[in-house]
Specification:
Blueprint: H1 2-5, H2 9-13, H3 30-34, H4 38-80, H5 93-164, E1 167-168, E2 172-173, E3 183-190, H6 198-203, E4 207-209, E5 212-214, E6 219-222, E7 228-234, E8 244-245, E9 249-253, E10 260-268, H7 276-282, E11 285-287, E12 290-292, E13 297-300, H8 302-305, E14 307-314
Antiparallel strand pairs: 1-3, 2-3, 3-7, 4-5, 6-7, 8-10, 9-10, 10-14, 11-12, 13-14
């Protein structure tokens, strides 16, 4: 009975894994228990040899690619220099070299022609500038000559009218401006001989207004007293007739007018008694870098909001 329950060393080694720790024979070590099979060591010894073979094969392949690339590059350069003919090209290398020399000669000749054209163009521009300068001088001389001729004609008429006793009364400006930078001046023509046509004398009688000579009036008429009266539109030396626009604002797209935007601004600097409508219609403005001689329309909004100018300007997005 006792021998049946006494375990042997051999039987202990055949027990399940949970009992192997207790069944380890005396004298055995943990290194022996944890050692891997011999076949695994043989596989790991073969791995370095395989990697060396692969790396050597790759190096040989790289060298072959470098050599082939160098050979192809040399062939390409020689073909471009016409030193080597291409098997697919039936043109000989000598013909290519001749064509290449001819091409270089044509390029050189073209460069020479381009330089000649540039010199000719420069000479032409100089001649044009010289011609423009001469033309400007000629125009200035002509302007001076015409001015002298007008002065002489004016002086002749003045002398002639003085001999006849005809003269203007001092011109007097209207109290109110007529339009932008413009005032109406009036004068009476005196002592017209009875044998002369008063209208012809009036239209041909010079005068000096605000320091500037004027050849003829803008209109002649007889007033209620039967006097010959003339009037002139004077648009110089009239700083009090220069109104100005407030900041011009964009309002909206112009209704019923595709492609146009509506701008508006109030007109300031109008003198008491001036015609608001005429002043608005003749006052220039600048919108978006563009000059406008007058608004599209004018809107008189009374004493509180004043005269407002409205411009319809081409506008993207409208």
């Amino acid at each position: 009975m006792n021998s049946y329950y006494a375990p042997s060393v051999a039987s202990n080694c055949k027990d399940p894994p949970s009992y192997r720790e207790a069944c380890t024979p005396p004298g055995s070590s943990s290194t022996t228990r944890n050692a891997a099979p011999a076949s695994s060591f043989n596989i790991r010894e073969d791995l370095p040899l395989l990697s060396k073979r692969v790396s050597k094969r790759r190096r040989n392949l790289r060298r072959l690619c470098v050599v082939l690339g160098s050979v192809l590059l040399v062939i390409f350069i020689l073909q471009n220099l016409s030193l080597l003919s291409c098997p697919l090209d039936n043109v000989s290398a000598s013909v290519k070299r001749a064509k290449h020399r001819e091409w270089k000669t044509e390029i050189k000749a073209h460069g020479i022609r381009v330089d000649e054209w540039a010199r000719e163009r420069q000479l032409h521009e100089q001649e044009v500038h010289q011609w423009e300068d001469e033309r400007a001088e000629w125009q200035e001389e002509r302007r001076k000559w015409e001015e002298e001729r007008r002065n002489e004609e004016r002086h002749r008429k003045e002398v002639e009218r003085m001999r006849q006793g005809v003269y203007w009364t001092p011109p007097i400006g209207d109290p109110h401006c007529s339009t932008y930078r413009t005032r109406v001046y009036r004068a009476i023509l005196k002592d017209i001989p009875s044998d002369l046509n008063w209208l012809e004398v009036c239209n041909d009688m010079p005068i000096t207004i605000q320091g500037r000579p004027v050849d003829r009036p803008n209109g002649c008429e007889r007033n209620d007293r039967g006097e010959v009266q003339a009037w002139w539109l004077v648009n110089w030396s009239e700083p009090s007739c220069v109104p100005y626009w407030d900041t011009i604002h964009y309002k909206e797209c112009t209704p019923g007018k595709p492609g146009f935007g509506r701008y508006q601004a109030r007109l300031w600097g109008i003198n008491h008694g001036d015609d608001w409508e005429n002043m608005c219609k003749t006052t220039p403005a600048q919108i978006g870098g563009r000059d406008f001689g007058h608004p599209t329309t004018c809107d008189n909004r009374g004493g509180l909001h004043g005269m407002v100018g409205i411009w319809d300007v081409p506008q993207r997005g409208c």
